[in-house]
Amino acid sequence: MNHRLLISGGRLIDPASGHDAPADLLIEDGHIAWVGPGAPPQELDAILDATGLVVAPGFVDLHCHLREPGYEEKETIATATRAATRGGFTTVCAMPNTNPPTDSAAIIDFIKEKARTKGVVKVLPVGCISKGRRGQELAEMAAMAAAGAVAFSDDGSPVSDPRLMRHALEYSLSFGLPIMEHAEDEALSRDGAMHEGEVSLRLGLRGIPAAAEEAAVARDIALARLTGAKLHLCHISTAGAMEMVRRAREEGLPVTAEVTPHHLTLTHEQVLAPVPYDTSAKVNPPLRAPQDVRALVDGLRDGVIDAIATDHAPHTAMDKLVEFDFAPPGISGLETALGALLALVHSGEMDLMTLVTRLTTGPAKVIGHPLGSLTVGLPADVVLFDPTREWVVDPTAFASRGRNTPLAGRALRGKVMATLAQGVLAYRDEAVSLSLSSQAEPQRIRG
Ligand code: DOR
Ligand code: ZN
Prior knowledge:
binds zinc ion; 15 helices; alpha/beta; 4-stranded parallel β-sheet; TIM Barrel; 19 strands
């Protein structure tokens, strides 16, 4: 017997079709079966009441550190994918700075198998560009592509050798997958702990100049022009980098970029206040100056930036309980992303359709996957969120093992209320009512 779940009474936003109006969504056997106002009469197994909520495609995160294999004390595929459901993400790309690094088909297989048995959302592995992420020789990119890698990156580190980067781009042309570059000139960033500017000066911390990112972005764009290969720039953080991406796009180069919720909403002032030297505000690239944040928001709105990616980087409390200089960079970001980003909508800087686009079809296009839409026939990856509901960030309640966030104790406006991953109700806030018919088999709804 077919299994039917109706999501009723919500405001349905689907960037793929441009739909933004009240509509019901019928899910049959885990797939989107029907979209529109007033569903045709039929027997239902369950109804999810979306009154007052936005119903949108599940978010796609291009950049997530799941930490498995090797750093399970920080996070696992099981805990990260649960955190994803609480953040409204139904697809996460797994970055390869694991231990061992994801530089072979065997490790791609391991991640896929873990995701299949322990994961609750889709996990798409990203393979290393270089063997061991050492930046010396190319990894087995073809074998990893065949095993299911969706992109290549040495993230955590840049590919410092421009010749190796050129070869990686050229090689990637044979499988058409993007090279995701962590753009950082390490000669310029070395020993830096935060953005180089007036705050680093006041705190006496060594700075990472905006030029460290901009020099690397300039080089990478030149190499994209030379090779014609797909270059995706990770977590761009400066106004200058943004301008270069804008010009590359105008030139028609195959360059895409992502920006993180923290770089869109926080500045380097976060390292000074409310808690000076707060290691939860240490991240790479560092939180930048207010004019950088404004440029990133403009670029995101204009579509120069295709995607918002969390760069979810969980660390243990012990990892971060050290002097600022010694703390590892990273913010646990999956569970706060939407609430933080909605500030841009509340302030009038961006409309909701644009924000949802950059979390769904934007990132899906970067990796060329048919994700992030509510098209009939697709697996039901759906998020329900209340754009105005207030809540206070309590990291001890995170599903992620990483409680490292500078937003602890902060009130956010906008909250994920339910997430369906491949048709399964993977997360539901108890405020959302779910009615089951007497014949329903709850395990088919809740997975
Ligand atoms: O803040 C960061 N954390 N930036 C990176 O590039 C790596 C990441 C991590 O893996 O912790
Ligand atoms: Zn990175």
